[in-house]
Amino acid sequence: MLKPARKKVKDPEGRMPLAEHLRELRNRLAKAVLAIVVGGIAAAFFYQEIINLLTEPVQRSVGCSKSFTELAEQKEGACGNITVEGLLGPFTLMIKVALTAGVVLACPVWLYQLWAFIAPGLHKHEKRYSLAFVGAGFPLFLAGAYFSYHVLPAAASVLLDFTPDGAVNLLPLGDLLNLVTRMVIVFGLSFELPLLLVMLNLTGAVTGRRMLGWWRAMVLGVTIFTAFATPTVDPVSMLALAVPIVLLYFLATGFALLNDRRRRLREAAGPSDDEASELDLTPGDIGEVEPVAAPRTLTDRTDTERVNGYDDAT
């Protein structure tokens, strides 16, 4: 008769052999990939709506008020000379759009899998900071994506103005989607800079006073960054990205100054009633250490006298 398998007891601190870590990483990667594939399959059914959403800013900038779906129903030509090249081009484009949308739709799943993999190795306060980072980072990323989506029409209009007179500018749909995706990612990640500074301040790596002293270099750096990040050279697009980032930087600096003041007041007040004070182990304050006598050991004895409370039998 086979004995039932003994259930493994998990280490409360998350420690496990390297093989177990690799096995857990494989399982969590498989779950994340499966969620992305399922999200991509679901997004494929709304492929046309996603295309209309992503191309609407550029179509509006070139004077088109109708989506691709409306143009197809009315059997009109593509507005703004947006084209798809090759026989396999539409299918490849659909796969790319579906997988990209699948990554976005499955972000709660793969973010949880990432968190579940690294959380056992974090302390309690590190877990709290990580959850706060994710909770604040997602809205900031959405805010950056929102700005990029509304800056894109002005950027497209400026870029198309460079087309020579009498020439027709063909806009490959794949390149257009790559441009939209790149701008969304760049704008979204740039909005995470203040959050990174706040996390560095909470961990004690950077003080608020030092962050305040960086303001000139930060304004210059943000301006240079936006000049390379935006696909146009017009000041409207640059200011649309630079002003929110600089504003968020000063908000992060104000939070860091308040946090530093709170930390100084807490240190000046000393430990609370239920908190142990730190020991001062400097050599000048330790004093002389009283030597401890070595314990008596048992020897071969024939009498019944006890040594250190034990006899030969015990």
TrEMBL record:
Residues annotated as transmembrane: 29-47, 93-117, 129-149, 179-200, 212-230, 236-258
NCBIfam families attached to this UniProt entry: tatC (TIGR00945)
Renumbered residue ranges of the record's region Disordered: 268-314
Keyword Metal-binding: no
Quaternary structure annotation from Swiss-Prot or TrEMBL: The Tat system comprises two distinct complexes: a TatABC complex, containing multiple copies of TatA, TatB and TatC subunits, and a separate TatA complex, containing only TatA subunits. Substrates initially bind to the TatABC complex, which probably triggers association of the separate TatA complex to form the active translocon.
Compartment(s): Cell membrane; Membrane
Membrane topology summary: Multi-pass membrane protein
Location, primary (coarse class): membrane
Any Pfam family: TatC
Family the UniProt entry places it in: Belongs to the TatC family.
Claim: Transport is one of the keywords in the record: yes
Name of this chain's protein: Sec-independent protein translocase protein TatC
PANTHER family per record: SEC-INDEPENDENT PROTEIN TRANSLOCASE PROTEIN TATC, SEC-INDEPENDENT PROTEIN TRANSLOCASE PROTEIN TATC, CHLOROPLASTIC-RELATED
Record keywords, A-Z: Cell membrane, Membrane, Protein transport, Translocation, Transmembrane, Transmembrane helix, Transport
